[in-house]
Specification:
The protein is built from 10 helices and 18 strands. The chain is an alpha+beta fold and about 375 residues long. The protein has 2 domains: about 150 residues, Creatinase/prolidase N-terminal domain (Creatine Amidinohydrolase, Chain A, domain 1, 3-Layer(aba) Sandwich); about 220 residues, Creatine Amidinohydrolase (Alpha-Beta Complex). α4 packs parallel to α5 and α7 packs across α8. The model has no long low-confidence stretch (mean pLDDT about 95).
């Protein structure tokens, strides 16, 4: 089997598209060191990057010439096997990038304008002082923000990427369908998370992107809280937000159940949120401003004399290699939806008696939308 996560042609197509984006903006190159972007553009997958910042890998991508990847010697064998191109250069020091090597390569290629990960929802994967040193050493180079270029490309998924999104969605849905019915009074939130994670792995998840579990009156506002040692009790809602990861691509959607079964009041709240979520999905499609999806959700709440109190700054977001990424499903986002984009739709209500939030993941297609979060949306009786 090839160590590449996608066919070589997939990466070559990404690089050619990047070159076109750079050319249109008269930018000579893009310097990246955030692990997610290195995976996306080079194919090299450093699986411990999120837990170790000791080895700072960097790639230089240019509109003329092939890419070059600077990688620590500890990882060079894997990098040479997994990168789609040949120019992989080892360096030996820990705790920082190979500054001299990067500076020399930028100069050798005659780069005058260089983009970097400086803007929204990107991160510099190197110490700031090292980045400032590189800028000082390259005093004749004009530095610009590369985040717009990166997200213009990454927001629009290829068919190969979308297949990974579907598989992550399937594993997550099965996690709910198999795991939630096993939840019983007396279990800890951590034990609930364990059940669901095992079910996702058994359904084909490569990794677990994340899992949040909340339960009990006074706790439902913990919409970003990890599971604790708290034991769930009869009559309590167990609300879960989670996502499987397949080949680096994530799912992200929520479901919930009530120990002993939901009350009529809880059912009504769930139905309201379901209706508002569906209103947003009905509007979504190619050529539609993403702001219109947010407005449709808000309109349904207003029609029912209710208010969104699941306060996340938006009612949805993009999803892909990151759990959340552009675009934002919000009235302030001017993005127009296109085929290949993947978004969530997730208006919600937080009450003392439960978190009512039925997040859905959808792919924008040529003709409309495809839902990948196929688990049942009504409240489970646990």
């Amino acid at each position: 089997m090839s160590p590449l996560w996608f066919p070589r042609e997939e990466y070559q197509a990404r690089y050619e598209k990047l070159r076109g984006l750079l050319d249109r903006r008269n930018i000579d190159g893009l310097l990246i060191c955030w692990d997610t972007n290195i995976r996306y553009y080079t194919g090299f997958r450093h699986t411990t990057a999120h837990i170790s910042q000791a080895r700072i890998n960097t790639a230089l991508l240019t509109r003329v010439g092939d890419p070059v990847l600077f990688v620590h010697v500890f990882l060079v064998t894997d990098a040479r096997a997994s990168a789609w191109f040949k120019d992989v250069r080892p360096f030996s020091q820990l705790f920082g990038p190979p500054i001299e090597d990067i500076v020399a390569e930028v100069r050798a290629r005659g780069i005058r304008t260089l983009a970097a990960e400086l803007g929204p929802e990107t991160r510099l994967g190197m110490p700031m002082n090292d980045f400032l040193t590189i800028q000082e050493r390259l005093s004749g180079v004009k530095w610009v923000d590369g985040s717009e270029i990166i997200w213009e490309q990454r927001m629009r998924k290829s068919p190969a990427e979308l297949n990974c999104v579907r598989k992550a969605g399937h594993a997550t849905a099965r996690g709910y369908e198999v795991g939630l019915p096993q939840v019983k009074a007396g279990m800890t939130e951590r034990e609930v998370a364990g059940l669901l994670q095992r079910a996702m792995f058994e359904a084909g998840a490569e990794q677990i992107a994340f899992i949040l579990v909340t339960s009990g009156e006074g706790n439902y506002g913990r919409i970003s809280g990890v599971g604790t040692d708290r034991r769930v009790q009869n009559g309590e809602m167990v609300w879960v937000d989670m996502g499987a990861r397949y080949n680096d691509y994530c799912a992200d959607f929520t479901r919930a159940g009530v120990i002993g079964g939901p009350t009529d009041q809880q059912k009504r709240r769930q139905e309201l949120v379901n209706a508002a979520t569906e209103a947003g999905i009905r509007v979504a499609g190619p050529g539609v401003p993403v702001a219109e999806v947010a407005k449709a959700c808000q309109k349904e709440f207003k029609r029912r004399a209710a208010e969104i109190t699941f306060v996340a700054g938006r009612v949805g977001h993009g999803v892909g290699m990151n759990i959340t990424e552009p675009p934002h499903v919000a009235t302030y986002d001017s993005t127009v939806l296109e085929p290949g984009m993947v978004i969530t739709v997730e208006p919600g209500i937080v009450e003392q008696y439960g978190t009512f939030h039925v997040e859905q993941n959808i792919i924008i297609t040529e003709k409309g939308v495809e839902i990948t979060s196929i688990a049942p949306r009504d409240l489970w009786s646990l």
